[in-house]
Amino acid sequence: MKITFLGAAKTVTGSCYYVETKSTKFLVDCGMFQGHSKETALNAEAFPFNPSEIDYIFLTHCHIDHSGRIPKIYIEGFKGEVIATQATVDLCSIMLPDCGHIQEIETEWLNRKRQRSGKHPIAPLYTCQDALDCIKLFRSVKYGELIQLKDDLKVRYNDAGHILGSSIIEVWVNENGEESKVVFSGDLGNKDIPILRDPSVIDSADYLVIESTYGNRLHQDKTNKVDRFVDIINETIERGGNVIIPSFAVGRTQEIIYDLHKQREKFDEKLQRLFSIPVFVDSPLATSATDIFRRNLDCYDEEARKYIENGDNPLDFPGLQFTKSPDESRALNERKDNIIIISASGMCEAGRIKHHLKHNLWKKESTILFVGYQAIGTLGRKLVDGAKKVKLLGEEINVNARIEMIDGFSGHADKEGLLGWIGKFKKKPKQVFIVHGEEEGMLEFAGFIKEQFGVESIIPSKGESYIVNANRVIQSTEKPEVSYTFKRLAVVEMMETLKEELDELTEILKLDLKQEKEDYEIDELRIKLKALEKSMVDILR
Ligand SMILES: [Zn+2]
Ligand SMILES: [Zn+2]
Question: pLDDT tens digits, the chain, 541 residues: what are they?
Fold first, then answer.
């Protein structure tokens, strides 16, 4: 079979691996590139294959960097099946439309800007409706179920413990009477993520494609995480302020609710007071996601399951409320009592959190409590880095509130977790492909794998293909179609830009019929255009 690495290759986002076997073409993940504009621009590129020829997408989990281009491939002709666990299907059915909605809003904003400079409008990557429509292609599978898709292709999904429904996917391909097995780790969870089990042990693989987000780092000890969390809330309420928690709607929000629920068992004065404070989850996406978490109990670890068996909902506690309408959300800022608000987005770039920040950042009694990584350039990062003033919803706001960061929550296994997981393979892979990380960390991680297990790793670049069979790996010498297509796309883009520039110039000249420019300037322009016309004719030949 041939594996082409189309995303998360020497970078973290855009997970997408294209596999061709004798009889089948499939993708593992079809994620979105996120972060800087150089990366997000990759989302608009055409797929280097015909989408209608793809039979399956094996989806590891719901995160947008793994699932976010499924609606795009759908509108471009993909009619196969997207195979995922039930929890992943459920979460995608809210997260992908939400992502489509964001695409529409961002494009609208961009088009207003383009219109002002006379440029033609562009279409969103896909719409909310496209995303809703593509869900009909999803098919759910259970963990541990061996699924024979074709005579020569079977797969099995195993719990990856990273987010509800996340999977490690085992793929068996039989070609020319020989079977080879490739394991795709997906994103691997951290050992102590609330609610979720630890990543499943896989016992063998011929080849392993593994994530490496924290491949060269160790997580800090986080035993005090919850204590600090409770202390910060208590101190704020004592001072008469509100606690605003910017949180990722799916995953992190439910972990916080679970951790707070767990504290109820402790009979401590501080905690008793905490449970007399109203806690609001103010994010429609977080509310829907919490419902999905409450439905997919088969993904829970032992501890979470015990609560359910005892008739106790671990994603609830007295005082917890979910706001729905924008009116209810606004009303939170008019309350006279002190409250805790958990709202999205986690990096404060969009969503209802912006209103709550506007009403609390200037109050010295309030606290903004961050519980997740803040990327460079985001409002969240500016606040964590100590900005004294920020621009928010068109206003400049002084930052007087207390800003806190609890760094203990991470959804990814660290270096020890990843190596420990590889260590449990009884039959070690012949070769490892390292993906989903930053290049420097990947090189170090490859060194650790070699040192501990004597196994060589390949760190593929975007667009590189490898032919793997039961015995060996060969880098495909066939010029990857990928760069082939991308080269053409780059030329198309240049021509479009040129066309826009020419249109703009035409408009300017039309307005200049009243001869505001000197005639000699127009003559010069005519000479230049004559030359351009000549070279254009040459190009077209
Ligand atoms: Zn993930
Ligand atoms: Zn990821």
Answer: 999 999 999 999 999 999 999 999 999 999 999 877 778 889 998 899 999 999 999 999 999 999 999 999 999 999 999 999 999 999 999 999 999 999 999 899 889 988 888 888 999 999 999 999 999 999 999 999 999 999 999 999 999 999 999 999 999 999 989 999 999 999 999 888 899 999 999 999 999 999 999 999 888 766 678 888 889 999 999 999 999 999 999 999 999 999 888 887 776 777 777 788 999 999 999 999 999 999 999 999 999 999 999 999 999 998 899 998 999 999 999 999 999 999 998 889 888 999 999 999 999 999 999 998 787 778 998 999 999 999 988 899 999 999 999 876 678 999 999 999 999 999 999 999 999 998 889 999 999 999 999 999 999 999 999 999 877 888 886 655 555 565 676 677 778 778 888 887 888 788 777 666 777 888 888 888 888 888 888 888 7
CA of residue 189 to ligand 1 center, whole Å:
9
pTM value is: 0.84
Ligand 1 center–CA 19 separation, angstroms:
21
Ligand 2 centroid to residue 66 C-alpha, Å? 6
Same domain, 70 and 214: yes
Could you give the C-alpha distances from 267 to 76, 117, 227, 262, 272, in angstroms and in order?
57, 64, 14, 11, 7
Question: Which ligand sits closest to the CA of 65?
Answer: 2
Q: Do 239 and 377 fall into the same domain?
A: yes
- 429 shares its domain with 521: no
CATH code (residue 178) = 3.60.15.10
| DSSP-derived pairing of the beta strands 389-392 and 431-435 | unpaired
Inter-axis angle of helices 252-263 and 284-295, to 10 degrees? 70
Domain containing 70 equals: 2-218+411-478
Residues 440 and 354 in one domain: no
As residues whose CB is below 5 A from the ion ligand 2, the structure lists: 65, 187
Q: Do 201 and 240 belong to one domain? A: no
